[in-house]
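okkk here we go again. third time trying to get the zinc ion bound version out, last two times i messed up the smiles copy paste (missing a bracket lol). double checked this time i swear
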Amino acid sequence: MPNTKKIFVRTVTFERFLLMGGTERIQNLFCGGCNSETEMMTISDLSTASGIPTLTLFQLSEKLQIHSMETADGQFMICRESVKRFEKGDQK
Ligand SMILES: [Zn+2]
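finally!!
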């Protein structure tokens, strides 16, 4: 039996419901960028909380301007502290 790897393509779906506030999920996870435990949020929750579009957050994480990680269950999490620092440092 050939050992073929299945590539799971996750379709990005746009959630139609609005978060009514206070429902953002925050997890305390170890951030390699901060080298300490920080508050992490899913990219969609952080986008809602910060007003930064998810696409921008993805691009920032690719450029390593904000910290991100993937949890064991495949959730893409963003470090809240790094976003706060980025926002402060981004003012020209
Ligand atoms: Zn961090």
